[in-house]
Amino acid sequence: MGCADAGAGTFRRVVVSEDMRIAAEAASPGSRIVDAVPLDGGSSAHVVRLTLVSSGGGRSKVVFRQHADRTGKGHSAGVAAKEFRLAEVLVAAGLPVPKALALHRDSTTCGPWLVTEWVAGSPPTASDRVGDVIAQLADFLARLHAVDPERVAGVGLEPIEDPAEVLPGYLPDDENGRSVAAILASGVERRPNPDVVLHGDYWPGNVLFRDGEIAAVLDWEDAALGDPLVDLACARVEIECALGAPASARFTDEYLGRATERGCPVDLHDLPLWDAYVSATALSAMHLWGLTPTDEAERRRTTQRFFASAGARLSLRSRR
Q1: What is 176-196 written as a DSSP string?
Q2: In degrees rounded to 5, what are phi and psi of residue 23?
């Protein structure tokens, strides 16, 4: 049976597939799907909230997440298993991450999948108390980076790619891009931090808040091992897009302070390079994110300014 199983029944424009039915049974044996609602986000995965009814009549909600790699990230077939095992470790460490409930078997119809608990909440907005939001976002990231990498030894996390090696392939064809290309060609002095567990795509849209508190951090498909500046840079540019430059600067300060408090001080020497990396890669893929033309134009302008700033800081350092 294919990915769009019309015979299975359609709920709110989502066709329930054979994989969804198998996933529901694995997560809650004897249950049946009575509702299937697509969830926002997950540009490289098919994400659906399933409402299940057990044989005793009880209802529960779970999230079905199936990887399709629609954005060309090149994830391996083990991406769902990585998310599943990492969730087990992080939940045990006390972090607000949805519990993993079920994982695909060796064979699937439409790609690797996992099922997690459904957590009610919504991403932060500019109307929220920005100071509280920033403090909590920074605290979570510091807590994540304080997790001993030995705890995830069996999860399957790969090392993050080297920004100096891959950045030339993402640089925009403009004055700023050519300037950064010249700096990279001449060689960039590096001072990396010790490797930590990375979320890989840490931004406000992947964080659910409820009653003013972080309820869950989602979407761990890009989790890896590497310099904590990767996550910091990603969050910086996204917070600047969503909440403004002052919020991004405040987040940086909050994170650095909390990381130091947890015994994991972070050296900012390589931050301009990582800022350039995350903003250049975002600019190259933004057209695949499903944004409205207005939202994409505004986000692109902010990200271009962020990239230009990173390039200017790299240039200043290279002259010293």
Answers
A1: HHHHHHHHHHH-----PPPPE
A2: -65, -40
β-bridge mates for residue 75, sequence order: none
Write out the two tokens for 138.
């920074």
Nearest Cα to Cα of residue 83 among 199, 3, 161: 199
Model confidence, pTM: 0.91
Residue 304 to residue 289: CA distance in whole angstroms? 17
Q: Pick from 52, 101, 44: which is nearest to 220 by CA?
A: 44
Start-to-end CA distance of the chain, whole Å, equals: 63
The three-point CA angle 262-147-207 to 5° equals 90
Amino acid occupying residue 178: R
Q: What is the mean pLDDT of residues 87-110?
A: 92
User: Which residues are within 8 A (CB) of 2 and not within 5 positions of it... i.e. 6 or more apart?
Assistant: 17, 18, 109, 110
Mind listing the pLDDT tens digit for each residue in 237-288? 999 999 999 999 999 999 999 999 999 999 999 999 999 999 999 999 999 8
Count of C-beta atoms within a 10 Å radius of residue 161: 14
**Token code pair at residue 72:** 């060309």
Identify the H or E element spanning 11: strand 10-11
Residue 74: pLDDT band (50, 70, 90) is low
Using the CB atoms, write b or e for 203-234: b if 16+ within 10 Å.
bbbbbbbeeeebbbbbbbbbbbbbbbbbbbbb
- The DSSP secondary structure of 24-85, one letter per residue, reads HHHHSTT-EEEEEEE-S--TTEEEEEEEEE-TTS-EEEEEEEEE--TT-----TTHHHHHHH
More confident of the two residues 59 and 76: 59
